[in-house]
Amino acid sequence: MSGRAEAVGGPILTKATRWILWVGIIGAILILWRFAVGLGRSTGLNDGYPWGLWISFDVVTGTALGCGGFAMALLVYIFNKGKYHPLVRPAILTSALGYSMAGLAIAIDVGRPWHIWRIPLGGFPDMGKYNWNSALLEVALCVMAYVIVLWIELSPAFFEKWKDSPKEGLANFSRKAYGIINKLLIWIIALGVLLPTMHQSSLGSLMLLSGPRLHGLWNTPFLPLLFLISCIAMGYAVVVIESALASRFFNRPSHTSMLANIGKVAAYLIWIFLALRLVDLVVRGRLGLMFQFNSYSLMFWLEIICLLVPGVMLMNDQKRQDLGNLFRAAMMLVIAGTLYRFDTYLVAFMPGENFSYFPTVPEMFVTIGIVAIEIMLYVALVTVFPILAGRPTTAEAH
Amino acid sequence: MAFDRRSLLKGMATASAAAVASASPVKAARERKVAPADARGMLYDTTLCIGCKACVRACKEANEMPADTRTPGMENYDAPTDLNEFTKNIIKLYKEGDRRSYVKRQCMQCVDPACVGACMIGAFRKEKYGVITWDKDRCIGCRYCQMACPFNVPKFEWSSLNPDIVKCEYCRQRAGDKQWEPACCEVCPREAVIAGTYEELLTEAKRRLAEYPDRYEPKIYGEKDLGGTQVLYLSHVPFEKLGFRFDSEEPVPEMQQTIQHGVYQGFIAPAALYAMLGVVLWRNRRKDGAEETDGEA
What we know:
The structure holds two protein chains of two kinds.
Chain A: E1 5-6, H1 15-37, H2 39-42, H3 53-65, H4 68-78, H5 88-109, H6 118-121, H7 135-162, H8 168-206, H9 223-249, H10 256-283, H11 295-315, H12 317-320, H13 323-347, H14 361-384, E2 388-389
Antiparallel strand pairs in A: 1-2
Chain B: H1 5-23, E1 40-45, H2 54-62, E2 90-96, E3 99-105, H3 114-118, E4 124-126, E5 132-134, H4 144-148, E6 155-156, E7 165-166, H5 183-187, E8 193-197, H6 198-211, E9 231-234, H7 253-264, H8 268-288, H9 290-293
Parallel strand pairs in B: 1-9
Antiparallel strand pairs in B: 1-8, 2-3, 4-5, 6-7
């Protein structure tokens, strides 16, 4: 089996991707429409639920789904499991796309995106007025920096292709840049671990400020730690899903035994997460809230079941060796992590005063459109650049 | 090679130690804040309010707010149903059988405000005299203030393409000397809402409570609730009936800032973690042989 990454080759636009492209175009048109009519008319958001689908899914869940790169960097570079290397580059790609699209979603969601430049530049020209207490400021700065780090981490894939370019300038630049990045690689990878550790935990801390209005099953000082653990678990799940789908649709090696081991790591994380959640509820005397059988306890149990199933499946050495089982368990884990984030940001948030929120159809199509754009970019990039591991046999490019 | 359990557990232990160190709720001392000595406040007394809404109209005029004609069936009236993008001050009615009470709602001017803790580049600030202000030029429209405020006070201009945050700023345009009164307090014909310094108002509220113990619920809302608010309330019906849902004495930002300050104190922990990651990576790279890590990010 060849470990080297190879471009998939072939056409980017096929029958399937053409459909996905159309969904993306509809999303893009609706994004323009949102700026033409404002947030009030285009979304279901209101003063009680100022954050809705775009924040809960595209940003909070989207970045967690984009933790494949973070999770694999931990495994390969920090725990020194070099043999998982073929899985790293595709994971970095999904992360770079996930985080970039989360950035796009933020720009769509905020009321005055033309002021976003003030976040990296402070209250320029009146500097020194940042609110360093703001968890959101930390998230914003870290996410901005991490998007850049991810594309730098991915850039060797571009340079590898471009260094053989017939264009002299591009080829020279690529060779030089490749060398520079190689020298700095350790510090870039270290940033690629540090930044998500910081902002994924801070995404949990964020909601502590809604504490009094957050349901007791979710409001805990352990929010940052729970968000951190679950984003890493989700990162491994996404690597399993992405790898399984790529092997199927692009006829790549399936890496089943590696994915099985990754699944086991994810299982450990699931159990740590569950133990922490349970102990926290016991210590704070909130166990009773689990058994009130209202919509909150229902959502809680849904989350727990979606974690228990993959937690049990992935601990089983035989089940784990089957790619189908791995894929199903990983999907459940992703659903559990998504539910946990939706619950913390939306369902368990209780603004009172008869406020209610449900996303509008355009709101949903923007989210779906953003996912479609992400898939399109993934297909385009793995087709053109050496990202996925090569085929088992030395097949020709097409 | 499968994972051998020992190395995995060792790695997990290191990782969880780092995670706990970086995210566990260490109770670093975060001092409780107190209102500044010259803090401006309001005292609202439900037993005096007759629901005339003179304060609502005066507020609109003083702050140049548009009429809210969106209430169904009330299109010819300025009839907001709650605080909203056109309304910084409102009188609401609580009614349950024979019991009824008006309640005035506006920004509570918290002593330790959640909105100020939330706001990224300081559009929200607790300014002179403890008044919480909002600065248009620093606002990105992220609405974290709305997620944070336990009183649902900041409102967003949902109908605007360049949306502002709308909330009572204690008629700060009138400031100049310490004695300024917001428009609502100035016009109230019954002195149901009065302006003053926080100290004066607290003394007055305590005096009323002591003098007429049968008239009021035995509590001044805002004296201690959520760390204290510069707007104080006396009521003849239970406060939760008037929409005051929380009576914990813990300021909203306390838990979050205790954790965040613990983790990010002087930025030492993140810097140390970064250095540690660098060292681990460096050692792994040498141990593993150059071809493993080279260029394959």
